[in-house]
Design brief:
The chain is of the alpha+beta class. It is 34% helix and 18% strand. β9 (245-249) and β10 (256-263) form a beta hairpin. The longest helix has 23 residues, at 22-44. The model is unreliable at 1-9 (pLDDT under 50).
């Protein structure tokens, strides 16, 4: 894998050639098996699968420079979902442990077409647990990813051979016990490598790839600074200014696979954080009403389905993990 910055995107072939290519079929079979294994694991752990909404009056504001898409919903301005986060929290009023495979649409900046890691339309495997901590979520992600990768490696050797992907790359992953580092440690390492990573912001795409290229198994980056993420991430009670959140970053230069956090369910704190991040609480009235009535505290995460497929299958670009890929600025079916 390369750790270079954005380059010109590989051309997307027409749908017929893309869908009939042996490499595409192998990648999509791997994706299917990953999702099937995730459903097996989560259902055994007592999770209930829900079908998430595609549109709503608001969506997750923390979409890292991308734009939201407005739709006319009977005279009201609704949004296409950029993330199911608010609805995952609301769903805990029905079930204590839920998951969904959620579609997301984000109009990414044009420069992301060359990162090999961004799509304008993608899917997340979203998980949420009532009464859970950030560390509970981290442990669940670790076990889930090991189960998914172990399943696909055992069941689809011919597809890995078709793609030329050496499954020996997963030797360390399959042992579990992924690495961990705090955001401040990641910043220090990147600055030591000569990369100008801001200590007050999320790790940038090049920084993620640099850290990823140095490791032979996925690893967690935790404790991002307040202001770098959405209003729903819980702040450390003993360490003000730090959030109880995490990213899971793949090995081999593939970058981020998953983001998650422990959520705050304190009404006053959420409203304050909304205002601090420039959000208008009135837009989120339905969500805030539910919080005031008693949405439980929780923790959860979202795994990028196409990103995980790309990493496991060893693909050059994330669009190769989509049957009908949408890249920023590229008009396609």
């Amino acid at each position: 894998m390369t750790t270079d910055g954005p380059t010109a995107p590989a051309p997307i072939p027409d749908p017929g050639r893309h869908l009939t290519a042996p490499a595409t079929r192998s990648a999509l079979r791997i994706q299917h098996r990953l999702l099937a294994a995730a459903r097996e694991f989560l259902c055994e752990q007592g999770f209930t699968e829900l079908l998430p909404p595609v549109i709503g009056p608001v969506t997750d504001p923390g979409s890292r420079g991308s734009k939201q898409v407005d739709v006319d919903f009977y005279g009201h301005r609704y949004k296409l979902m950029t993330s199911a986060i608010l609805y995952k929290q609301a769903s805990l009023l029905a079930f204590d442990k839920i998951f969904c495979v959620a579609p997301n649409v984000r109009l990414e900046p044009l420069e992301t077409a060359g990162t090999s890691r961004h799509l304008a339309e993608f899917h997340q495997l979203d998980v949420e647990m009532a009464g859970a901590s950030r560390d509970d979520a981290v442990r669940l992600v670790e076990r889930l990813v090991v189960h998914m990768v172990d399943s696909v490696v055992r069941e689809l050797p011919k597809d890995f051979a078709e793609l030329g992907r050496d499954v020996g790359a997963f030797t360390e992953l399959l042992k579990g016990s992924f690495g961990r580092m705090r955001h401040a440690e990641a910043v220090a390492e990147l600055q030591g490598l000569g990369h100008p990573q801001s200590p007050d912001a999320e790790l940038d795409w090049t920084g993620e790839a640099l850290l990823s290229a140095e490791r032979d198994r996925p690893f967690f980056v935790t404790d991002y600074p307040k202001g770098s993420r959405g209003f729903y991430d819980r702040e450390h009670p003993e360490q003000p200014g730090l959030l109880r959140n995490f990213d899971l970053i793949a090995a081999e230069g593939y970058g981020e696979l998953c983001s998650g956090s422990q959520r705050t369910n304190d009404y006053a704190e959420i409203v304050t954080r909304m205002r601090e991040t420039g959000e208008n609480p009135q837009k989120y009235r339905w969500y805030l009403d539910l919080v005031r009535e008693g949405v439980p505290g929780s923790a959860g995460f979202g795994i990028g389905v196409e990103r995980l497929t790309r990493y496991v299958a060893g693909l050059d670009a994330v669009w190769q993990a989509s049957a009908f890929p949408k890249l920023a600025g590229v008009v396609s079916p």
